[in-house]
Amino acid sequence: MMTTEEAAKQQYPDIIPEKVYRTLPALLREPCARFTDAEERDLFLFGALGVISGMLPQVQGLYFGAPVGANLFCFIIGNYGTGKGALKWAYAIGDAAHRHRIKMACEQQQQYTRAMMQYRRQQALYTKGKLQDPPEEPAAPGHLKLYIPANTTKTAVMQLLKENDGHGIIFETEGDTLADMLRQDYGNFSDILRKAFHHEPVSFFRRADNEDVAIQHPALSVVLSGTYDQLLRLVPSIDNGLYSRFCYYILQGTDEFKNPFSVQDSGHSHYFSTLGDTYLGLYKQQLERSTPRNFILPVPLQRFFMEHMAYMKEYLQTQVSDELNGAANRMGIMCYRIAMILTALRHYELGLNEDNMVCLGEDLESAMLITTRISYFARQVYAHLEEYGKKRASNKADDGKCSDDERLLCYNYYKQGDSLRAIADKVFLSRNAFMKVKRILQDYGIYKAA
User: Fold this and answer.
1) How far apart are CA 159 and CA 89, in angstroms?
2) pLDDT at residue number 81
3) Do the beta carbons of residue 316 and residue 419 sit within 8 Å?
4) CA distances from 102 to 146, 147, 394, 419 (A)
5) CB of 419 within 8 A of CB of 318?
6) Which of 23, 126, 295, 449 has the most CB atoms within 10 Å of its CB?
7) Rounded CA Rg of the chain
8) Residues 34-49: tens digit of each pLDDT
9) Neighbour count for residue 70 (Cβ, 10 Å)
């Protein structure tokens, strides 16, 4: 296993390292191998992780002492026509499970129809005095789905989550489909996304039944793709809580015109349809369990995880901005969840279905290398939002609020290597004044986000 120093040397590779693809569980390694273009392969893996994260309802681990699921929020950014087509094959991984849920719903609807006919007959008998006790009306079945449409209202999303035991995947290849709904009062469910990322309870009022409905442990996965303009409609600024909850992948594209008749691509449809059936088996195994499966990170791997994430956080704070503090923290849980996904796949391939799943070193290492790449894209998104996003009140100049001596102290402490928050604590007696320090240093022309 690589050391933290070796991981640092691989800080920002152009693509996800080849080593990751060699050591992935076969259920991911083999479909990834079908893509000859490195960026297309990365894109498929990124989308596949997002989909699979929503197909493990009984997998959980302890993070800061609280149970967390494998759910990821993923956003793929690219200009129009830059080759986001590999995402449709990631969608295919969950398609068989989605159709399975719909078939279950149809069967339940048929049973409900028969039960209602019986109920009406008994109700008629009761009305005529031929039955002593009134019959009990059967409960209407829910709308069972794996993929939850983004083009809907907040109440509808909540209802679908409730009817699917709090689980679901939002998968949209046009990011503004979701962004448009977030901007409307009747459809604004950005608060659901923010809470669902950490499985925090959400509730809503169902007018039809005059009922307050609560989802105690929502487990929602999200896979979106779109342009930078579409991203800005969803995440208008760094201050928006959704920024740090998403894993980002930025497509560079190619100047070459790709061969639409490639023999390599010709068998994708059949292959991924069959792969979807395999993942349906994994999903059914999850649904059949009555108790969760516990993801276990052994103590040596916990130390390795801590070293790596501490390095990544320090790098982002010192080399980019202290504003990435929250994003760096959430990259930790993203890495943990990716390791959880890889471990679940590994155990399924081995035919294991025990209560505890112990993570292998190679799966944690793969998760860290993938997260390192994600952190690079988070930097790029941060820079884009800083330049083109919604301007914040904290960006307003406050030159008259600090003296020349304070300015000089900020300058000297920065030259000594102090962080923005450390300088703010020394000069203004508050670490929260780091944005003021940042603006002072920018005035000197010596501080600029990487």
Assistant:
1) 28
2) 60
3) no
4) 9, 10, 48, 54
5) yes
6) 295
7) 25
8) 998 898 999 999 999 9
9) 26
Q: How many CB atoms lie within 10 A of CB 399?
A: 9
φ, ψ dihedrals at 248, nearest 5°: -110, 145
User: Nearest CA to 302 among 327, 332, 331, 326?
Assistant: 332
Q: Would the pTM count as exceeding 0.85?
A: no
10-24, 54-68, 305-319, range with the lowest pLDDT: 10-24
Distance of alpha carbon 3 from alpha carbon 9, whole angstroms: 10
Please provide residue 343's backbone torsions phi and psi, each rounded to the nearest 5 degrees.
-65, -40
- In this structure, the chain runs to a length of 450
Please state, as a whole number, how many other Cβ atoms lie within 10 Å of the Cβ of residue 166. Answer: 19
Cβ atoms of 381 and 61 within 8 Å: the answer is: no
Cα 254 from Cα 236, distance rounded (Å): 28
pLDDT digits (tens, 9 = 90+) for 183-225: 554 445 678 888 999 999 988 776 666 678 889 999 999 999 8
